[in-house]
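Onboarding guide, step 5: your first structure request.
Type a short instruction followed by the sequence, for example:

Predict the 3D structure of this protein.
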Amino acid sequence: MRPDEIGGILRDILREEVASAVGRLDGLEEQIVLELGDRSPRLRFVDWVRGLTAPTRAGRVGQLAVLGATAALFLVVGVLITQNAPLAPALAPRLAARTNHEVLFVVPALDAESVAVVGDFNAWEAAPLTDENQDGIWTASIPLSPGRYEYAFVIDGRWWGQDPLADEYVRTFGQYSSVRYVGGGGDGV
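The system replies with structure tokens like these:
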């Protein structure tokens, strides 16, 4: 058999099948409409959200409605919070925390000729400590705003980074530095 004979046979068979199926398709549309009746299609949540973001007038109205409902919810929550907690006492600790605190740095160095404190509060430049009564206790009072500060003492040119009065220690580039927290309430400053 040649290919064009096979094509003709297949075409005839398909025509017969379509002609026999036409009778079964009559009235199918009416049957579907009757079965579905007045049911509306179910709208999934994802489709509903897509409808809100659609670039149509109804979509824009939906977007505005969601935005308005969100703003109203935040407003109600804000009013409830402020009714339960007065505003002025809540701001008082923050306002007090903005002021500088005099932080006393103290180090015992009995035979030292010079003592200084260096830290991130003074760009690691030496701030000298004094021993006014020559008892070997060197002190300096430095005004610092609230925060976390790394520092170390330099005693006769040698780094001394483990202050016993520090809140914690960190090791950087093989050397210890002390850490002091100012204005957090833990150190009394």
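Each response can be followed by summary notes, for example: The domain at 100-182 is CATH 2.60.40.10 (Immunoglobulin-like).
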